[in-house]
Specification:
- The chain is mainly β.
- It contains 2 helices and 22 strands.
- The strands form 4 sheets. Strands 5, 11, 12, 14, 15, 16, 19 and 20 form an 8-stranded antiparallel β-sheet that branches. It has an 8-stranded antiparallel β-sheet with strand order 6-7-8-9-22-18-17-13, with no helix packed on it.
- A hairpin with a 5-residue loop joins strand 14 and strand 15.
- The longest helix has 7 residues.
């Protein structure tokens, strides 16, 4: 962690029996949250939610056993914050700098209904001085995340992509169906970025999959027969949905993902990317909100 960020510095934001800060992987600061329904974990590196688990259920989020916890490197799994661009950019971090930057923890609060909210801010040095980027995480019987970008410039528009790159823990990729995308146009990044139309009633994954579904604002559900639960991805102010699984060959190429871990994960990501990127007028702000929940089948 940064020399200026010690565990003692962060303990002012703790809430007895609800919010504590500890040393996590690589001795990075990790925040642990406990509610009457669930537990969660968040790293300051990337303001990265690495865990959410309802009482009596398997973890909702997938975390790679090979994930690296090092400043300047992205954590593999959980919910990385993608900003201000999606994908690769030569000479710059893939998926932007937000997920490889240590965020500032601005505070925490417990509501009368038992939910707990944590608030983070992307340091000004990590982004343009004309932007203010904040992230709020609310933990209850569901996980709510909200990424807000404000354009502080009085004269210039701000153009960016954003995405909450959620990795979900599943029983077996061969027994998962994804619904809510029928009739949607998507960019197939595995097939030379060809534009296609989703005709299937449910998306099933049996090979490397990397799709950007466009102009889709509705909720998406992951039906997991092996773990006998449905995961619901509800999104607000999100026009894109990304579905990703690296499959066999790519998983073997990734140093921070186990060779067979692709079988236990699928990414269904809410955001605004490609043609859906955001063009923010001077003085305006835009929020991307995602609510993750689960129910038994």
């Amino acid at each position: 962690m940064k020399e200026s960020t010690t565990l003692e510095d962060l303990r002012k934001h703790e809430i007895p029996e609800r919010v504590t800060v500890v040393k996590g992987g690589g001795d990075l600061p990790k925040i642990k949250v406990k509610t009457d329904w669930s537990v969660a974990e968040i790293y300051l590196l990337g303001a990265h939610v690495t865990g959410f688990q309802k009482n009596g259920e398997p973890p909702l989020l997938f975390m790679s056993q090979a994930s690296q916890f090092t400043l300047g490197k992205a954590i593999r799994g959980g919910v990385p914050i993608i900003f201000p661009w999606f994908g690769a950019r030569e000479g710059f971090p893939s998926h932007g700098f937000a997920r490889v930057t240590e965020w500032e923890w601005e505070g925490s609060s417990a509501a009368p209904d038992g939910s707990v909210t944590l608030r983070f801010r992307l340091p000004t040095a990590a982004n343009s001085p004309s932007e203010n980027v904040t992230f709020a995480v609310t933990v209850s019987d569901q996980l709510t995340m909200e990424l807000t970008v404000a354009n502080l410039s009085p004269t210039e528009n701000l153009s960016f992509e954003n995405c909450l790159h959620s990795y979900f823990a599943i029983g077996d990729i061969a027994e998962v169906e994804i619904t809510g995308l029928t009739g949607t146009t998507y960019i197939d990044k595995v097939d030379k970025f060809t534009t296609k139309l989703e005709s299937a009633a449910a998306v099933r994954i049996s090979s490397e999959t990397d799709r950007v579904y466009l102009d889709t604002a509705g909720p998406v559900e992951i039906h997991d027969r092996r773990l006998r639960r449905n995961i619901r991805v509800e999104k607000i102010s999100s026009a894109s949905t990304v579905v990703w699984n690296p499959w066999v060959a790519k998983a073997k190429e990734m140093s921070d993902l186990g060779d067979d871990e692709y079988k236990q994960m699928v990414c269904v990501e809410a955001g605004n990317v490609a043609q859906n990127k955001i063009n923010l007028a001077p003085g305006k702000s835009a929020s991307l909100k995602v609510i993750l929940s689960s129910l038994p089948i």
